[in-house]
Amino acid sequence: MLLSLIIPVYRVEKYIQTCLNSVLSQLPAHGVEVIIVNDGTPDHSMAMAEALIADYPHLAEHIVCLHQDNQGLSAARNTGIEQARGQYLAFLDSDDTLKEDYIAQILKVLQQHPHLDLIQFRAERINDEGDTSPFLSALPYSGLKLLNSDILLDIFNRSAWFSWLRVYHKDLFATLRFPVGRNYEDAYTTPFLFLKSKSIYFIDDVLLQYRINHTGITATKSTKNIDDLGQGALHYLDYVEQYPLFTPTLMAISQSYINDSLRAEGYAKAQQRWDTLKQHIQQKKIQEDLILNRGNRLFYRFGLKFLLADRMLRQLGLKK
């Protein structure tokens, strides 16, 4: 088994059939398994998934359905990791879809480069009307690369830690799992997978469609979501002196954390959160020169003053 594709399922009646059709319609006769993890969904999502799977009887031995009590996205992914037989792992959220040549392109790369650590590709947004739009700027790399300091610095500055944006050698997860009970779980895990990797293959094609889902787990700026972002920043702080590369991604997640608080909780609470976080940051040796993103650098220097100035410029139409 070369590749295991892990799909957690929870409250996705609206999307599950589109998601699975995009996978099963291109599933080859061998080499790939699909692991569907029912995370205790209370609706008919899993029943709909099983009914759709019945339409693909020739693929039955390549589809694994697992059931567990609801524990969250991280726990569902972890269950899939533990049961996966593939040499490589991929993740797909059950409201997203694969482009029609995803599996063919991934398998081609894996067969040509059998000792690869990572594959990274491009994605696009899609809404419920089927309209698509660009998502994330293209990286200036293609093909097989060693993960040198320049590439890693670029990736850590972009901080696009979505687990579904890449394919991973399973050995990278030997001592890593997604944090159970936390939202934004990718940000807690994916950077460490990069630190353990030596090689990566960049595919300059869109292979996945990321759903704009306004009812998704992290779409609302709840107190838990804001708190989990803040915990992510503190998590990076624990490693920033050992791994200075965490500096730019620390500032990216810190800015998101404080900006979400400003929008949802108001200035006073956001300032309180920033004062607390800044005290922790000031206790560490931060290498500011590693922060290549101008907005993150300005946030590091000026905190809420930068966020308020940025908001004003956007309201005046002076900044896109």
TrEMBL record:
Keywords: Transferase. It comes from the Bacteria. PANTHER family: GLYCOSYLTRANSFERASE, UDP-GLCNAC:BETAGAL BETA-1,3-N-ACETYLGLUCOSAMINYLTRANSFERASE-LIKE PROTEIN 1. Residues 4-145 form the Glycosyltransferase 2-like domain. One of its GO terms (molecular function) is hexosyltransferase activity. It comes from Acinetobacter apis. The keyword Transferase applies. InterPro entries: Glyco_trans_2-like, Nucleotide-diphossugar_trans. This is Glycosyltransferase involved in cell wall bisynthesis. The keyword Transferase applies.
